[in-house]
């Protein structure tokens, strides 16, 4: 049975309008996704995701679409709007992409990334962020955080790489017992078949990713996005140039960080220094 096309919502954003216009012109031309894929040299699955606004439009595609449909630059002009648009559902999109990613690369400068937080660390973190939150609301947040980690237990799981600033290890949440459990988890993840943890010591000094946290999410087809997060806001970056710049900064930082073996030793030394 043929898959039912996803309903389009062109009024939501320029990206949604771009996808709707691709489908409209394709159907007017009586062209299947398979045929359009042959013409513009993109996969059928990639084009389907563009039509439903599930991924950012590649910069070379608008010109190919204008040539295929004879639209005299319409897709190029629409792309100029779509590429600069802040996605209206950024965090939801980030979670959807994360759940499908085959490679997750994270840098964190202050706190342990959510995907590897222990339950007690997450609870202490949420309590610190909003001490007036009702207990029930707090537990809902913790439950949601723990359920998000299920993607690391998928079959097969994504590869997960983390670079952690030394501050992540030394900044305590919940007290020594909570931190000891959290650091033990990180030490266990330093080098496994699907995870790598590297520590960036204070002695390295400044670098391009200071000031927040970042995740690079790579899909099975090679599509990549970046997520930058501050105190209370996050930004999803899908423009290829922006993502490439973040990947380069991450690669440079990884080259300067401790090896996984030395990172494990460093993490355990911080554990041993915690008061009993």
From TrEMBL:
Boundaries of every DUF5753 domain copy: 91-268
Single GO molecular function: DNA binding
Pfam family, one: DUF5753
Key words, A-Z: DNA-binding
InterPro entries: Cro/C1-type_HTH, DUF5753, Lambda_DNA-bd_dom_sf
Domain of life: Bacteria
Protein name, as recorded: DNA-binding protein
Organism whose genome encodes this protein: Streptantibioticus cattleyicolor (strain ATCC 35852 / DSM 46488 / JCM 4925 / NBRC 14057 / NRRL 8057)
């Amino acid at each position: 049975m043929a898959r039912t096309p996803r309903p389009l919502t062109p009024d939501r954003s320029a990206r949604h309008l771009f996808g709707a216009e691709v489908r409209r012109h394709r159907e007017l031309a009586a062209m299947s996704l398979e045929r359009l894929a042959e013409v513009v040299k993109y996969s059928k699955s990639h084009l389907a995701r563009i039509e439903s606004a599930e991924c950012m439009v590649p910069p070379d595609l608008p010109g190919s679409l204008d040539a295929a449909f004879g639209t005299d630059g319409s897709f190029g002009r629409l792309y100029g709007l779509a590429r600069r648009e802040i996605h209206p559902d950024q965090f939801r999109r980030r979670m959807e992409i994360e759940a499908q990613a085959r490679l997750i690369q994270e840098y964190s400068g202050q706190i342990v990334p959510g995907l590897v937080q222990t339950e007690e660390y997450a609870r202490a973190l949420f309590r610190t962020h909003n001490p007036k939150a009702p207990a029930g609301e707090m537990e809902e947040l913790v439950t949601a955080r723990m359920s998000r980690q299920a993607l690391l237990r998928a079959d097969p799981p994504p590869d997960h790489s983390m670079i952690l600033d030394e501050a992540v290890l030394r900044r305590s949440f919940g007290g020594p017992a909570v931190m000891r459990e959290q650091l033990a988890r990180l030490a266990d993840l330093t080098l496994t078949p699907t995870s790598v943890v590297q520590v960036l010591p204070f002695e390295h000094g400044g670098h391009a990713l200071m000031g927040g946290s970042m995740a690079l999410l790579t899909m099975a087809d090679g599509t990549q996005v970046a997520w930058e997060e501050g105190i209370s806001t996050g930004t999803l970056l899908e423009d290829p140039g922006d993502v490439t710049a973040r990947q380069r900064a991450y690669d440079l930082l990884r080259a300067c960080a401790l090896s996984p073996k030395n990172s494990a030793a460093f993490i355990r030394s911080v554990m041993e220094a915690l008061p009993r």
